[in-house]
Amino acid sequence: MQLTGKQKRYLRSQANTLSPIFSIGKAGASEEWLAEVEKALAKRELIKVNVQQGSELSAKELAAFIEAKSNITVAQVIGKTVLLYEEAKDEKYVKYSLEINKLA
């Protein structure tokens, strides 16, 4: 999903208070790790991922890996943090999607 500037600004404002729930370290990113991220996004829609100092991947490389291997949208890469968004498929977990669709 391609986000507009307004949609990205909205997501960044909502993520301001979020803490990273995933980290990437020396082991790097794998298909299994990405599957866990997708499970978390199915229930949260918006999460932050932290790239640790010892990681061989940069935040931009991680963002490229995620976008290439999944339908997850990278809303922002800032420093060592990557902000990820994916619209929830289950209605009870919809939190940000309604506003995102209004801003389209």
TrEMBL record:
Which SUPFAM superfamilies does the record associate with it?
A: YhbY-like
Gene3D superfamilies of this UniProt entry? Answer: YhbY-like (3.30.110.60)
Domain (CRM): residue spans on this chain = 1-97
Domain of life of the source: Bacteria
Q: Does the keyword RNA-binding apply?
A: yes
* InterPro entries hit by this protein: RNA-binding_CRM, RNA-binding_domain, RNA-binding_YhbY, YhbY-like_sf
Does RNA-binding show up as a keyword for this record?
Answer: yes
Q: Which controlled-vocabulary keywords does the entry list?
A: RNA-binding
What protein name is recorded for this chain?
Answer: Ribosome assembly RNA-binding protein YhbY
Which organism does this sequence originate in? Fructobacillus papyrifericola
Which gene is transcribed and translated to give this protein? yhbY
